[in-house]
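Regression test attached.
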Amino acid sequence: MRLTGLGEFGLIERIRRSVKNSARTVIGIGDDAAVVSLVAGQQLLLTTDMLVEGVHFTKDMTARLIGRKAMNCSVSDIAAMGGIPRFALISLAVPGNLETVFVDDLFRGLREAAAAFALDIVGGDTVRNDKIVINVALTGEGKAGQVVSRGGAKPGDQILVTGPLGGSLTSGGHLKFLPRVKEARYLVEHFLPTAMIDVSDGLASDLGHILAQSKVGAVIEESAIPLRKGAIIDNALYDGEDFELIFTLAQKPAAQLLKTKTLYHFYRIGEIQEAAKGYLIKKRYGRCLPVENKSYKHF
Amino acid sequence: MRLTGLGEFGLIERIRRSVKNSARTVIGIGDDAAVVSLVAGQQLLLTTDMLVEGVHFTKDMTARLIGRKAMNCSVSDIAAMGGIPRFALISLAVPGNLETVFVDDLFRGLREAAAAFALDIVGGDTVRNDKIVINVALTGEGKAGQVVSRGGAKPGDQILVTGPLGGSLTSGGHLKFLPRVKEARYLVEHFLPTAMIDVSDGLASDLGHILAQSKVGAVIEESAIPLRKGAIIDNALYDGEDFELIFTLAQKPAAQLLKTKTLYHFYRIGEIQEAAKGYLIKKRYGRCLPVENKSYKHF
């Protein structure tokens, strides 16, 4: 069946029936806006990600994995703040001649990713377009005092990552990654990072955001940066879409974290320094070079 | 200047600088997610709207008015729940060769619409695409017991609208409308409608949503439906994009509302009846006909 046959309200009803929500969702899909409840006094985290056919995915990729990626990109942003993902809104632009099964599979992927973090899909919008565009707007919950921005790194802080970087596009990792929500929750509850970000554009650019917003510099060590199988250092620096977390911790808690036995993996990759000292990479053979910030150009 | 020259981060920085937020916004544009605070115990209203070039607007329309419309479509959804719009996230897909001034004007329109309701633009996403796509995800605040869904209309309830309908496309009203936030707040605080919706697809279809979700029927009166200058009854029923509110009220409060002097305009257009009696329009010459539900097809 084609979408033109199903019609807009048919499509919405189909999506509504496929979604099951928690008691936190008072009114879900099907009204003008969703109504949700949070614990009193919590902070809200709000994020949105738009994925466009031909830029972030192609129609010959599995629709289910595209859906999973669309949801997980936003979930990763909530993780990067130390928050708990709660409520998602899905906007979908689709061509009328698209097979309905594609949208079913896309939503299957969106639902599976949502279920992995017990978050609710509470609403959305559907429009016609020649290319597929998916926007996921996600509301998360942050506990007071446990929300981590990009702006708190201090000279002397250690720089850590949650997993190997590079080659996410060639390995399919950019479609199948698991957002580091559990790792982030563990960190904010036990070690409270001074700054945190997820790797979407590559280590060079994303750590660069922490440095810019914290007004500091850094030296990272080539030999310490964990690489995905088959990846080289430039892949880690510039590929992006790894969706691991980069975070900074003062020296003492960093040392403590690295000797603590946990279910998770944390790798120390460098140290924050004064802004005037620059943004450097210590190469394997010992020389320090400036990090080139040639991240993926969206325009 | 073209967007390719400005670059993604240049564009984001440009937008960030142009936006001024309230004290409710703890962290705005420029981190992984926005952090916001609401009064404890309030309910959240969440809505999202996607506007696509060639469907909802064309590039030869004023960018400022396109921005205004994009924001106001979501604001209207929060109004239709009786809520207060608070925090907006803007996703923007744009071609690299688009003039930067177009995006500046678009955001000027978005900011002006936001300022009219004292709501904050707290984040977003920017991607490259050959056609312009704008998604506005909006979080609103609902007071407990004052949130109005589409599902509460009862037989005997009166059906009212906040203003004239029809011809929004030919008159430019679809770009320049003012969402009925004040009217909705006045209603929920003094008369609490049993159901409410905004007119996006046309009276026939949107009242139809209230009927479907409330499991009731209705009879509307052709002679009572207020028409925009130059519009005929079919424009009111099927044009859409009026963004007036349709709401239902029990007979007593409806009578009371209609004799109260307010700053606002409310028009009684019909009555809710049992579902078995159907969805009818009483024509000027007295006959009742079924309402044809031939609303705008998105697919």
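Expected vs. actual: identical. Chain A touches chain B through 73 residues (CB under 8 Å).
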